[in-house]
Design goal:
Number of strands: 2
Shape: globular
Number of domains: 1
Structural class: alpha+beta
Radius of gyration: 14 Å
Low-confidence stretches: none
Length: about 80
């Protein structure tokens, strides 16, 4: 069975269709990713999903570090209830 591959633009366009009804959306990429051009991915995703928050983590590679603090900050800024403690 052949695996299909999609361009960043195709994925971002498809993602845009699915998140239009979502008020807040966050996506994170590593600035030192050796597998993909994260800066270009960020630019394309922001163009395809204008209401998305795209965080580029400059020192991170393809494997992103613990993102819990970033996600909690994003959720708190989005007026989403985040458990304390």
């Amino acid at each position: 069975m052949a695996q299909e591959f999609y361009s960043v633009d195709q994925v971002a366009a498809q993602l845009g269709l699915h998140v239009r009804t979502v008020r807040n959306y966050v996506h994170m990429v590593g600035g030192r990713d050796a597998m993909i051009d994260s800066h270009e991915t960020k630019r394309r995703l922001e163009g395809a999903v204008p209401h998305a928050t795209v965080r580029l983590l400059p020192a991170a590679g393809h494997l992103l570090p613990d993102l819990s603090a970033i996600v909690i900050d994003f959720l708190r800024g989005s007026n989403v209830a985040v458990p304390q403690g």
